[in-house]
Amino acid sequence: MKTKTVFSCQNCGYQSPKWLGRCPDCAGWNTFSEETFSEPKSSAGGVYSAITNLSCVEPLLLKDVENKEDIRIKTHIAEFDRVLGGGVVKGAVTLLGGDPGIGKSTISLQISNQLAKGGLKILYVSAEESVQQTRLRAERLGAANSERLYIVNQTDLSLIIEYIRKINPDCVIIDSIQVIFSPEIPSGPGSVSQVRECAHILSRLAKAEAISMFFIGHVTKEGAIAGPRVLEHIVDTVLYFEGERHSSCRILRTVKNRFGSTNEIGVFRMGSFGLEEVSNPSEIFLAERPKRASGSVVTAVLEGTRPMLLEIQALVARSSFGYATRRAEGFDYNRMNLIVAVLEKRLGLHLENDDIFVNVAGGVRVEDPSCDLAVAVAIVSSFKEKPAKRDAVVIGEVGLASEVRSVSQAPLRIQEAQKLGFSQCVIARNNLDADHEYGIELIPVVNIQEALDAVFD
Ligand code: TYD
Ligand code: MG
Hints:
- By secondary structure, the protein is of the alpha/beta class.
- It has helices at 46-52, 78-84, 104-117, 131-141, 157-167, 192-209, 228-234, 281-286, 333-347, 372-384, 410-419, 448-455, and strands at 3-9, 15-16, 32-38, 72-73, 88-89, 93-98, 122-126, 149-152, 171-175, 212-218, 237-242, 249-257, 265-271, 274-277, 296-303, 306-318, 326-329, 354-360, 392-394, 397-398, 404-405, 424-428, 441-445.
- The strands form 6 sheets. It has a 9-stranded mixed sheet with strand order 8-7-9-10-6-11-12-13-14, with helices on both faces. The chain has a 4-stranded mixed sheet with strand order 15-16-18-17.
């Protein structure tokens, strides 16, 4: 048997005949590893026949194509359905990524159970854990007596395809895609080529037979799913499960979605009976807010269609070393530096010798620029050691001239603040809308200074 060696980037799949220190395609360092290719063991039948036998469809005129609505199946786990854009789409392939131990297998089993309850036939391919282990977990989750939920411990792709053919399921879960291999694919198990080919074959099958598939993938140290870019191209939807290991809060985020919006998040809490939905995240995120501390400010961000109140914390401390440290947790580091520069230049604050730490409480990562103003106020509050008004919410984007800019969907954010019992809302003047009446006092501001005047007594 002929064998060939090639070096391929484990990050993006780029191939080279020689080892390279840096990938010319994705610019990753030290990502190359050697893969051995051998001639395929058999050419007839096998995994490729599964997709080459798929019925051939002639091209149609676009205007003649039937207008079929996506068929969505609700899992009745509202947080999950919303992230997917309204439920599991028939024939769609979803990649669920996250750190080991974050709860990917747990949520997959819960989804399987829910779908099975709804009358679907599920095949759960538990490639990493034995069926007994999965059974134990299912007992904890109350999913052990589920009808129509089949489970198998298998890593060989051709056998998995055989089971799919035999059982004819509506939904298949592959836990995890990284350990699936096929001897017919000419490269070693676990390599990027294997993962990509297996994912490709399975997703072709999903499309052809209208099976909804979930691929579970681990995240590498660098924070990307091993072979991430190749897998992201293949699937319809990419979900990431995030959260800090020691906190019970878990956030499910859409990175790509062919069937819905990509900025929805789902909030869960890991409990003793699996993942529980958190339908009022603001309460959770504000639960441990300190009573009267400087450097703590509440803001309202919008994640997808849902407003959420978050506590922004800042700590400004005299640097004990020669140079000042800056760190941002859950907030963009460069954006924090920009806000610090605005505070120094426009408000004359002397922050150059201070360490500055900014943190979004609860382990949430925010990208919404509407929390700029809250970050600015929190930094000033800590710097001056003056607590900001406790029952005020601060919303606004900050510009380089220290102006406060308007944010999108202000009414939703204001209503959320009102709902949680806040009495004042500091917001960009341009966001004021005479037609709306709220049960909360609005304080319009045009620059950072006005916001500071409003929140400090
Ligand atoms: P798991 O779903 O196995 O993670 P992944 O598949 O992403 O690697 O989750 C494992 C963790 O979840 C483990 O630390 C135990 C915890 N857990 C609970 O706290 N409660 C539960 O009901 C279950 C099933 C797991
Ligand atoms: Mg797992």
